[in-house]
Amino acid sequence: MDQLVGTKVAATPAANDMAPKTADDVIARIEARAVILPLRYPLKTANGVIGASPLVLVDLVTAKGVRGRAYIFTFMPQALEATKLLVDQLGALVAQAPVSPLEIDRRLSHALRLLGRTGIAAMAAAGIDMAAWDAFCVAHEAPLAVMLGGSIRPLPAYDSQGMDGLALGGERADEARRKGFRALKTKLGYATLQEDVDILRALRRAGGDEMDIMVDYNQKLSVPEADRRLAILADEGPYWIEEPTLQEDYAGHARIRASSRVPIQMGENWFGCHEMSKALAAGATDLVMPDVMKIGGVSGWLRAAAAAEQYGAPMSSHLFPEVSAHLLCVTPTAHWLEYMDLAGPVLAGPPVIRDGQAIACSEPGTGLRWDEDAIARYSA
After folding, report:
1. Is residue 326 among the annotated active site residues?
2. What is the pLDDT of residues 231-250, one digit of tens each?
3. Among the options 84, 220, 294, 318, which is catalytic?
């Protein structure tokens, strides 16, 4: 449906009706700032440690002065500069465009067709998309969930933790229980299967029998080793097993799923709904959990939610709880919200978690508001 560059299309009455009525309806500029934020607990995984939270903060400002906000998590500080530059450059492509998120998504998809909408290019485009939706909703004085046709409601949330070992893992499980969480996620992939089993048992003791425990291997295992470990771990009652092997190995995940007594979860590394559809078609997973930044922002999430409904796949979120809480409110197969605080130090109002449930902000847009003093303090 996209038009080739340089192709002239005759205007139609419908197209004219959709054009901005005044200059107030267009994007004036997009600003990007890089910060590196402290984490209360370093995020340890089977593939390495994330010691701090590197973010690109995105502000989309309209000609009227409406401001939409979003942030991009780059995983490693080395990717901050390139991601910020891409936000600046892609932002220039939509300057003076109408504040119409789906049209902005179409323009950026077209611009990235040859390069490919993946990696940090996709992340930068998604950051602009999320900021555009925020501005669009702020201009209409409605929360994102309401603007998308839904309503704000409590969502079951789990406390997302790292590969913390026996002592710290037990402390964090007990803390999650005391905060009211009824589910938590831990990362496994220790040197031995016995260590994985010991951790699960320790978390169960600390969190209590009522605590659901999700497991994330972060793509650590080979397919045969995944089969071996999952056969034993199933007796410990994990809620799901996430990405036991390489995320792009859909056939391998399908083999693991065929013999597993525990539901398989994946999705945080899908770049776009087409990758999600391929995984579902291959029978690679029981559950899906796209990342709003990688799946294509709010616009990409809406396509993913439709695909999940088509396959009857329960759909959870990955990171970005401030935006994901709104999106799960309009997701037909909404499942769990992952709670991990990556941006809290620069947010004027952190997400609300009450009795193990996430509650989306009821202010217009997504509710993201910056603490400018903190941004100056943590500027990269």
Report:
1. no
2. 999 999 999 999 999 999 99
3. 318
